[in-house]
Design a protein that fits this description.
The protein has 286 residues and is an alpha/beta fold. The chain has one domain: Rossmann fold (3-Layer(aba) Sandwich), CATH 3.40.50.1820. The chain is built from eleven helices and nine strands. Strands 1-2-4-3-5-6-7-8-9 form a nine-stranded mixed sheet, with helices on both faces. The longest helix has 15 residues. It is globular. It holds the Pfam family Abhydrolase_6.
Length: 286
């Protein structure tokens, strides 16, 4: 059973298990329970800390949260947790924040697992307009209910729970405003993960659901792959959250990566290999 505690003024963490520490970082509009399909398996061999971003889950609400604000806060959260360095498993905005932490505070990070991370969408006029439109308060509540039905492409018990929670939260004006504020921040020029991604020197596993209509593999995914030189890559025939949509396949990729990690972060700069990083493409039929 996980134990919940208030880690800082605005951040709650749910901890379970023992061993090398892992931190789970959820997407906008979710909370620590997004990872329920895999958390028990992770906790069998690891100390797992599932964070609720400010404004979500058991964390307190905060005025005007942004993706870059979450990224700036994460190193302080990790320092407060203690016991690092950590493996960071980040989804969407959680992945964006994880990249920032690994680049700016490498002593805190032992490895990165990025699941459809944000920050790689081109700043095309259309994409900026969509972020601002979804961030419009009058539309944000409807978007909270609708988006999980669009970008979670496989229905599992975990996905059903995520969709149900999103529908419930869409009636809470504080949650809706947090959701809208984060979406508006996606249109900011600072929401670009590539500069920090190029500085990442820890082992990295990039995992992408190829059927995600929001962060498309053919655009965002390939931009992420280019920026994260040397990263292992695994793709899945699912949407935005492989850990909820295809948990068995997700763990089949994750567990060997975790076993391969050094116990301490590298002390030298990353050396770019002459060999292509490994890529796994899961082709399970619907």
């Amino acid at each position: 059973m996980s134990q919940a505690r208030q880690l800082a003024a605005e951040v709650a963490v749910h901890s379970t298990g023992s061993g090398e520490p892992i931190v789970l970082l959820h997407a906008n509009g979710g909370d620590h329970r997004d990872f329920d399909a895999v958390v028990d398996r992770l906790a069998a061999h690891h100390a797992v800390h599932a964070i609720d971003w400010p404004g979500w889950g058991d964390s307190t609400t905060t005025e005007g949260p942004t993706a870059t604000g979450y990224a700036a806060a994460l190193p302080h959260v990790l320092q407060s947790l203690g016991g690092g360095p950590f493996v960071l498993i980040g989804n969407s905005v959680g992945g964006f924040a994880a990249i920032h932490a690994a680049a700016t505070h490498p002593e805190l990070v032992r490895g990165l697992v990025l699941v459809n991370p944000g920050g790689f969408t081109p700043r095309w006029p259309g994409s900026v307009a969509v972020c601002r439109l979804i961030g419009w308060p009058r539309l944000a509540g409807r978007a909270m209910r609708t988006l999980p039905r669009l970008y979670l492409r496989r229905t599992t018990p975990a996905v059903a729970e995520i969709r149900h929670r999103a529908a419930e939260m869409s009636t809470d004006p504080h949650r809706v405003e947090a959701f809208a504020s984060i979406w508006r921040s996606f249109a900011m020029r600072e929401h670009d993960a590539r500069p920090h991604a190029r500085l990442v020197a820890v082992p990295t596993l990039l995992m992408w659901g190829r059927r995600d209509p929001v962060l498309a593999w053919t655009i965002d995914g390939r931009r992420a792959r280019r920026a994260l030189e040397g990263a292992q890559v695994a793709t899945f025939p699912c949407g935005h959250q492989a850990f909820a949509e295809m948990p068995d396949e997700f763990m089949a990729e994750l567990e060997p990566f975790l076993r391969s990690l050094p116990s301490r972060p590298p002390t030298r700069a990353r050396v770019i290999s002459d060999h292509e990083p490994s890529t796994t493409d899961h082709q399970r039929s619907d």
